[in-house]
């Protein structure tokens, strides 16, 4: 494939050119739109826009068709250097491009042109629009200029592009497989959760969905019950609290505000830590009390733009398996290691393909001194190294109050997700003036470690549904066993069998329809029930059952007691086998 810049490979050039093609199409369709930037990504490209009227999902097809029309014009893509003064005239009226021009240190700037469309660009393109063939727009989301949440809100249109038809076809196949495993589709198919316009971005959990949710809650509680105290803090707290914490200055656009009849302004909590700090201050602590580990399964609310929300993966209301550890500086590394060990215990039963760690360092917008940030960052790095865990650095990606370890997992489809976090915080303890009495009777400020293992339980559930493609392991399934009868003559026996499973604490149901056994099996398979227990007259006479697994394998002549024992062993070991 021809290119006009050999500094990048063919795939990069196609994707970069596709970003320009997208911007070109948008300007022809919506000429009042302001362009910002459009970089290449690992899987494709995006372009951020400030439109006069927000784009809608249904307009993607229109924009994509316009892109194909422009591509077919076979427009040469030509780059050249111009003076900054010429560039300012060329992009007059676009404050985003003017800001970019002002930040370029050289006397000239690089532009690329195709037809009458011109954009600021360093290069890396195909030679003509006719070479941009294998692309697709994938979605619209919210974004901010310079990634600053207090900056100008933009709309991002994303897409994928490939150099060859073979690569594009392989992508389409992956997407087809992913759509079948989309947790939103599975949520409806398995009767787990729904969403409604009356509460945008806030899931309604149905009976089975809540069983699954509670199993995750029970699992995390079982691992922390001996080492942690569990508390609950209010959901609505005074605005003054969030001023003290710094969230009002650094997180304002994510907070829901409420007001009372007497004019008092409160905030619906976007996180749990300030409430935990209030509880810490209720009594004076000694160094002997530390480390003090306090867990909270707290419901939080954060405003997410409509274009960013995505099923359970990006919601406005979610539950964090949160914990705050108050400790001395000397205890911090060991406490972080304890959190890393807990991460292993939590993630192992789900058989993720790969778990990786990244240390996120100080962002541009942050609070606290350089010394605090260095101490906190070193504590995280040292703990990882002592634990023997490799890690990478995510520069500038820390929270505004402290650095963090981000835990990433790779699912069965090879996709990476960011889940848990471990954050070291010297700032909030100082802001809230929390203390402990040290051995020499002096008052000291403790270190605060913020820790979430699953992160958002809602998001974790959505990831698990896609990871297992809806076929949840027996111990986690909201419906573990479905009893099926060959004919109505076995109704009483089938009911008795089902009740024995229930009495043993298993999630069992009875298909009491009069449908053919083949129809009952198909229904259980569609609803991804791990075990189908089939009873006919032969089983009723012998006092046995037949176990049919989701893969169609059958085991005859089992007693209910044998199956209950097998089920309990499966639950105890957290097996993912049938």
Features:
about 25% strand, about 575 residues, five-stranded mixed β-sheet, 3 domains, 28 strands, Rossmann fold, disordered N terminus, alpha+beta, 18 helices, BirA Bifunctional Protein, domain 2, Threonyl-tRNA Synthetase, Chain A, domain 2
Question: How is this fold's topology laid out?
Answer:
Blueprint: H1 10-29, E1 34-35, E2 44-50, H2 60-71, E3 77-83, H3 84-90, H4 95-103, E4 108-114, E5 117-120, E6 134-144, E7 153-162, H5 165-180, H6 183-189, E8 193-194, E9 204-205, H7 207-224, E10 229-230, E11 236-238, H8 239-245, H9 247-250, E12 256-259, E13 265-268, H10 273-280, E14 285-286, E15 292-301, E16 317-327, H11 332-347, E17 354-360, H12 370-387, E18 392-394, E19 404-410, E20 416-425, H13 427-431, E21 436-437, E22 443-444, E23 447-456, H14 457-467, E24 481-485, H15 491-503, E25 508-510, H16 517-526, E26 531-535, H17 537-542, E27 545-549, E28 554-558, H18 560-573
Parallel strand pairs: 10-15, 14-21, 17-18, 24-25, 24-26
Antiparallel strand pairs: 1-2, 2-7, 3-4, 4-5, 6-7, 8-9, 11-13, 12-13, 15-16, 16-23, 17-19, 19-20, 20-23, 21-22, 26-27, 27-28
Helix pairs in contact: 1-2, 6-14, 11-12
Short overview:
This protein is an alpha+beta fold and 578 residues long.
